[in-house]
Specification:
- GO terms for molecular function: acid phosphatase activity.
- This is Purple acid phosphatase.
- The protein is mainly β.
- It has a single domain, classed as Metallo-dependent phosphatases (Purple Acid Phosphatase, chain A, domain 2).
- A four-stranded mixed sheet has the order 1-5-2-6, with no helix packed on it. The protein has a two-stranded antiparallel sheet with strand order 3-4.
- The chain starts with 18 loop residues before the first helix and ends in an 8-residue tail after the last strand.
């Protein structure tokens, strides 16, 4: 599957911006056995482990953010798990689907993780492209 804003990205740029879409559609992708999802929007690369609802799941898809082609916005380099970099929850609403939808918080009850999340397998801030 493919769409523009990522559901799983640990960069501060566009962090959890499409949470409403994720809440509305993740179960559908999971129930039909989606294996891989490609996204852009965040100007960096990140690949997830198989994940569903922010938890590792052997039946969940792998999410790949390939938004590192670059543009005037420059590269995304800060991660939400770095000290002092977690955005305030109300700064990341999803206005296109009716407001803020981040009901799911980390297992410790926080909006951001305090280390690279388990779902995040690899992240790289450099210009590049992907080949499938």
């Amino acid at each position: 599957a493919s769409w523009h804003p990522p559901w799983y990205s640990s960069y501060t740029a566009h962090y959890r911006e499409a949470e409403c879409m994720k809440e509305a559609m993740e179960e559908l992708l999971y129930s039909y056995g989606t294996d891989i999802v490609f996204n852009g929007h965040v100007h960096a690369y990140e690949r997830s482990n198989r994940v569903y609802n922010y938890e590792l799941d052997p039946c969940g898809p792998v999410y790949i953010v390939v938004g590192d082609g670059g543009n005037r916005e420059k590269m995304a380099i800060e991660h939400a798990d770095e000290p002092g970099k977690c955005p305030e929850p109300l700064t990341t609403p999803d206005p296109f689907v009716g407001g803020f939808c981040a009901w799911n918080f980390t297992p410790s009850g926080k909006f951001c993780w305090d280390q690279q999340p388990d779902y995040s397998a690899m992240r790289e801030s450099s210009f590049g492209h992907g080949i499938l």
